[in-house]
Amino acid sequence: MAEAMELEKERERERAITPRSEDYSQWYVDVVQRAELADYSPVRGCMVIMPYGYAIWENIQKALDKRFKETGHQNAYFPLFIPYSFIQKEAEHVEGFSPQLAVVTHGGGQKLEEPLVVRPTSEAIIGYMYAKWIRSYRDLPVLINQWCNVVRWEMRTRLFLRTTEFLWQEGHTAHATREEAEAETHRMLDVYADFAEREAAVPVIKGRKSEREKFAGAVYSLTIEAMMGNKWALQAATSHFLGQNFAKAFEIQFLDRDNRLKYCWTTSWGLSTRFIGAIVMVHGDDKGLRLPPRLAPIQAVIVPIYKSDEERSQVLEVARATLTKLEGAGVRAHLDDREEYTPGWKFHEWELRGVPVRVEIGPRDVEQEQIVLARRDIGGKEGKRAVPQARLVEAVTQLLDDVQEGLFKQALEFREKHTYEPKDYGEFKEAVERGFALAPWCGSAECEAQIQEETKATNRCIPLEQEPLPENAKCVRCGEPAKERALFARAY
Ligand SMILES: [Zn+2]
To answer: Which domains does the chain have, with CATH numbers?
Structure first.
């Protein structure tokens, strides 16, 4: 009777996730909610990041912060509120961000003399402070990052992917020369790409944004773009070369070695909680999440299997010893010894939550001094094998590496399989229905807008690494001369 009820519950849970083929958007929401990554809040457009989701964010933070420090950056913190007039100092910046601003007009029951903007990004307030701090070439470069929240008023929101308030990091640097600032812009893009591919197992394409898609106030923006499970693109991080635009707006000047007063060259770069949405969509399947081991809050879950009390004590003893050994080896392990759930129910639960490796221990395994390892990226009998208890740590750490690599390989193969090089506009239109289209493009914003109107695909980037086009190459849409290929896709 009890078992039948458990089975019933199990089936319910399986049904709880809409298959991707049926409704991809609903699948995404189901996974995010059922895996307890995030939930909707009473404030429209804002989300609550739940402990399991926040633990992923903490692992993202650790992996990135380490890289930022290794490349010479320090963390600092700037205010949430920005005087309204600051936002207006850089013309393109104010135009780009105005529709999304949240403005505070009252404080302490009084109307404020000058309204305050809740930061949508911090170039303005940081630019003001840099102008104060930077005096001479000896003060340069300034390499600062901050971890914080920002607010951009959004009309249509999706958990993690587009929310009115989100968490991110924003790096802001100031340099003496253009060359240095450009090198920094590229260096940080490389840092993001390395993080995405090595830690999150998310393959990315590095590229330059078109004029139309660049950051409001930048000279140019660099981006990493990833393919999601429905073949749409997602901008996973950006790095902006701001030239002297903000330096001139905020008077960030320094006395150079030649005793002349010059404007600094600045950059900014950011990655947000949106990246968690990318992890869900790049790796997830119809059973739920599949987390890359390096970012997974729990890398290995131990599920004890027993029926009688005698079996229970034997199995739990081995299970506890297994936990101690794995933790001792630095594996983020968890023992699920809850009495009120069956092993089968627990299997589904941890599959849904995307734990990379499951360790099963039953009476037969205790007797044979072995454990059974199951990998989330493959699943079924194929992904399962028994190993001697003596080889536990070695086998689990190796398997975690294998899953990390396996997820990356699967995602890369998927992207390559769904990336097309259409020969004409007819082929192009079909290609963007089925994935990414890499095509010669004239560079005109008007042409880009037409493409979007006709196909719903946007220009994701002009990939940095690409073969030179043959001479006389023509734009895929308008037939004007093309110098480079651009990547087009439907996007979040
Ligand atoms: Zn064109």
So the answer is: 24-283 (3.30.930.10), 300-399 (3.40.50.800), 419-489 (3.30.110.30)
